[in-house]
Each structure stands twice: as structure tokens, then as C-alpha cells.
Amino acid sequence: MFTLVDMNSASTHAYDHARSTPPRALATEAVHAGRDDLARQGLHAPPIDLSTTYPSYDSRGEAARIDAFATDGAEPEGPPIYGRLGNPTVARFETALARLEGTESAVAFASGMAALSAVLLVRASLGLRHVVAVRPLYGCSDQLLTAGLLGSEVTWVDPAGVADALRPDTGLVLVESPANPTLAELDLRALAHACGSVPLLADNTFATPVLQRPVEQGARLVLHSATKYLGGHGDVMAGVVACDEEFAGRLRQVRFATGGILHPLAGYLLLRGLSTLPIRIRAASETAAELVRRLTADPRVARVHYPRIGGAMIAFEIHGDPHAVIADVRLITPAVSLGSVDTLIQHPASISHRIVPEPARHGAGVSDRLLRMSVGLEDIEDLWTDLNEALGRTPRGTKMPALSTRGV
Known about the structure:
Order of helices and strands: HHHHEHEHEHEHEHEEHHHEEHEEHEH
Strand content: 5-15%
Structural class: alpha/beta
Oligomer: single chain
CATH architecture of the domain at 278-392: Alpha-Beta Complex
CATH topology of the domain at 278-392: Aspartate Aminotransferase, domain 1
Helix content: 25-40%
Radius of gyration: 22 Å
Strand order of the largest sheet: 1-7-6-5-4-2-3
CATH class of the domain at 278-392: Alpha Beta
């Protein structure tokens, strides 16, 4: 025997049930949110719906549901219509992430940059093209704003200058805390107050809801590169915005129009990744804290950056040549990105922030000797042996070659 499952109904019930469920601990939510309806259907693992289109003999009903979506972007009730409008598997992930971040809704995209682009397009559609932003941000976020690729105009400020930079056409204040790659932390509550009626978007990729929930400090939008910790295994690319339902509706309309949809398999992998998010973050953070202790005491290291809230990200500046460290690690993986179960290290000035103009990069604290490390789940002694040996080949006083002026 087998069970025939209405997967759209399943995801809708999961959403409704999750919204009515009493508050639960984050670790419990990570395991159960988006899955609350499965047992009633005789299922344990969430199903994957790979359909791009769905049959319907009721064209009048289809028309009414599409009209409703065009009005406010609400998820169509009833069975699915078309994959670009939404997907039941992806909806489960969105439900779960909203629960973890403490928001009404969440909208998933094909990448973090697609998610940020959708936010900018929503605000621009209202004639609010001006953005106030605080550096450092992820390098491609910086580039998207600086180049005005979506018709936006950006004013870069220090945190204390946010209120003075606001204009009648300001549609967004964008910050990242802890910031990429320096791990600088911002007072989100003070920033939200300075924003007034302008939405504060906080990129929470590094912290995840395990370490902080920006909406509790006044942010109205929370951005994640879900490629990182939410997926957690280096095998899925995605982005997501957690927000209220009204803004989510506008984001869904942009996603439908521009096609920046998340593949259902990616939605499944992200939902699976969320179930172990708290334990992964806490285990990696414990290892990271010990590495910070050892690096801080190491004479080969000039400065260590580590946020007060903790986490699995470390940034450190060395006296020697950072390129030599990248070349000499053996266990640690020299690669861009972060948040995987294995430890990654990269040189921001060469890769993740290479696209940011050098004066702006240096002004934001991203020095040419800075290394960024995403700590994984390996044994602390194995990681330290590898890092110690790589640092051993970069003696204090080593002159670092000048960086090429060409981008990568």
C-alpha cells in the first residue's frame, strides 16, 4: 500500500499549524517547524514536489486565485498552480525559517543576492530607491549598491550617521552584524530607532537565529544567504528574507516576475539543514572560541576579530604573508563561502571583498593581511595542528607582495 499525499495541502497545514503553535524552544522549532502536519499524513520525512506545473479543470478558480496573488502576493489557496508562483517543499522551509526568526513569513530565493535584489526592487517600485548602508557588508552586496545595478542610490555612513542620512526617498537601511568579514557588531536596537519609519534590513547570515534574532531588536527585515549555515553542508545555494506578511507578499510578486525561485530540492535540503542548525552552531562556536584563545596568544598573529555573541566565524590579521597560509593549509579547506561542516579559510581582499574598491575596503577595516575562517566540526587539535603549521611558514616581519589591481 501507499499513501497519496496532497503536498500543497500539507505545506499549507504546516504553515497554519506553526502559526497557532505555542512558543517552543529554538532547538525544538528547528526540528519540527514546517513538518507539523507530517505525522497526520502517515509521513516522517517531508516529501519533495518537483512539479513545474499542476493540472486543473477549474479555470475560473485558477483565474480568481491568480487575481488574488496579483493584488497582494498572498500564497494562492488550494492546490499549486505553477512552480514560479510557489512550491510546497519550499513553503515548508519558509515556514520553518519564519518560526526560527520570529517573523510572520519568509520568502526564499535562488541565492542570497537574489533575495537582496528582490528587497531593493520592492522598495524601488514604491519610488524609494535611496539606500543607507553601513560598511562592511558582503562584497557583492556592496557592489550591487555601489554600482546602482538596480537603479538604487546608496549613502555609506557610520552607524551614528544613519538618522542624518535619511531622505524622503530612502527605502531601506542595510546593515550586517556580525559583519562580513571583520565580524564587527552593531547595536541593532539603536539603529532601528534611528531608522524611524524606514525599514531596517539586517543580514543575519553569520549569527543565524541561534545567536540573535534581529526582529526582537527592531529590524523589520532579516536577510540570510541560506547557502551558508542554514544549509550547513556546502551543497545548496539559496537566499531568504524573513519579514511580515505584507512585505512577503510584495517579495513573492517580485520573485514570480523575475524568476528568482528556489529549486524544490534546495528547499528540501535547507529544511533538513535547519534541523541540525542549533547543534552545529554551538559545536562549531565552542571550537572557534578555543581557536580564538590560541590565536590571540600567538605572536605570529597581529589581531583577532571575534564577536561578543560568539559564533563559528573568526577573522585574524597576521604579521606574515596571508597568501602563504592559504597555500599551506592541508586539513582546512582554502575556499570562499562559509557555514559548512568543514572548516574553510579565505583571504577577503583577494576574493569575497575584491570587488569593493580598495579605499572603501580598507576604510571598513578589511586589511590586506586579514584572513577569514569559518570553523567547522572537526576536532580542535587537528584544526590547530594544521593552522599552526601553516602559520609557522609565515614568520613575523615577512614582507607581503602587493596585491594585483585586477579583480577576480
